Amino acid sequence: MRFRSSIALTVLAFIPAATLLQRTAAAQVAQTPPMGWNSWNYFAEKVTDKDIRASADQIVSSGMRDAGYIYVNIDDTWEGERDANGVLHTNSKFPDMKALADYVHSKGLKIGIYSGPGPKTCAGFAGSLGHEEQDAQLYASWGIDYLKYDLCSFIPEVMEKQAPNDHAEQMRIMVAAYDKMAKALKATGRPIVFSLCQYGWDSPWEWAPALGGNLWRSTGDISPDWDRIYTILEQQDGLAKYAGPGHWNDPDMLEVGNGKLSLAENRAHFSMWAMVASPLLAGNDLPNMKPEIKEILTNRDVIAIDQDKLGKQGYRAYADGEDEVWIRHLSGGAMAIAVLAAGDNRYSTHPFHLDLAKLGLHGPQQAKNLWTGKETTLTHDMPIEIDSHDVLLFRVANPK
Ligand code: GLA
């Protein structure tokens, strides 16, 4: 052991301290799924500097920051034009990005931004094609901490043009484009979370971690609609083994508090995103957030499931019709159990019985109901009644 560590020390001596620091810092981002807020799901293309500042203020005053929501992410539509030197400028909605980043940082928060590998972003603004290093340096100079990199126009403008009808080659070109930006971000020396957004094409969970992706969208876009949320959840099944500290499946940003989702649907959406170790990026109108929505988003017990240090994503243990039981193994040998009424009927009309054996559990289990805060005992075959689209979420500290 002595011999080995002295070799290690000798090797270390040849690596400049700054490089070591960079590597350590880069390796440390997203050790748990990133938490924060993103402008797209509520503001979409209308977002302004003022909205970002107001949202940052609210994250602090609502207690969300203290509950773990740290990243304030500007999505698409901040981009202006490039000047003669290729330097990208912001558009008039964002007069001074550095000042905005300083403001967000002054609140004890971090700030994220958005671009894509194509000539244009999804909303038709300037993308990073041919300017990857320059853009990465620009973000770092502003103090950006997180980049969402969205494929969009790269598909028709580069992949399909360079390799018509050759799917394998198109995918290779796509992976190379993400790798290019990953390297450009690393070269800045600033720890920047790298979020891949290419809608789950070509199984990004298999290749994104190797190039330094911290999260990758696993599906198309979410919308504030139960059927869409449930469809996306189903698509997470089978992906658990790809997630872990530093690299996460991303079933898209939260719609909690958006559209016409019922309270049950908001609760179920939030619970299940925590079960699958999803990034928790709220996407609602924070300055006008209703108290019951704040309560959901700041439920510390549910957040603790999402942020569990072990970083093991949960999975569906079994389904009984449209009733599903998901489990997640947690640090310290604990376990989270979610019983989801995915369908449109009440359990009272379709009695559901909890099968503990199918979860690998034997005998009564002491559990905490994470939405009522009450201690309870789960027994084998116990009848469970839940409203349609609602969830029961338990933490079992000592599963037997
Ligand atoms: C795509 C992404 C969304 C959002 C928009 C912005 O649709 O999947 O999350 O970033 O682009 O234009």
Largest sheet: 8 strands, parallel
Average pLDDT confidence is: 93
- The Cα radius of gyration reads 22 Å
Tertiary shape: globular
Instruction: Determine the fraction of residues in helical runs and give it as a percent range.
Output: 25-40%
Record field, number of beta strands: 18
- Which small compounds were modeled alongside the protein? alpha-D-galactopyranose
Report low-confidence residues grouped into runs of 5 or more. 1-26
End-to-end gap: 39 Å
| Structural class by secondary-structure content | alpha/beta
Keywords for this structure?
400 residues, alpha/beta, 8-stranded parallel beta sheet, 6-stranded antiparallel beta sheet, 20% strand, disordered N terminus, binds alpha-D-galactopyranose
Q: Secondary-structure map with pairings?
A:
Layout: H1 2-14, H2 17-28, E1 35-38, H3 40-43, H4 49-61, H5 64-67, E2 71-73, E3 79-82, E4 88-90, H6 97-106, E5 110-115, H7 132-142, E6 146-150, H8 154-162, H9 167-188, E7 193-197, H10 204-207, E8 215-217, H11 226-234, E9 248-250, H12 263-275, E10 280-282, H13 291-297, H14 300-306, E11 315-320, E12 323-329, E13 335-341, E14 352-353, E15 365-369, E16 375-378, E17 383-384, E18 391-396
Parallel strand pairs: 1-2, 1-10, 2-5, 5-6, 6-7, 7-8, 8-9
Antiparallel strand pairs: 3-4, 11-12, 12-13, 13-18, 14-17, 15-16, 15-18
Helix pairs in contact: 4-6, 7-9, 8-9, 11-12, 12-13, 12-14
Describe this structure in words.
With 400 residues, the protein is an alpha/beta fold. The chain has 14 helices and 18 strands. Strands 9-8-7-6-5-2-1-10 form an 8-stranded parallel sheet. A hairpin with a 5-residue loop joins strand 3 and strand 4. The radius of gyration is 22 Å and the shape is globular. 46% of the residues are buried. The N terminus is likely disordered. The site of alpha-D-galactopyranose has 9 residues, from loops.
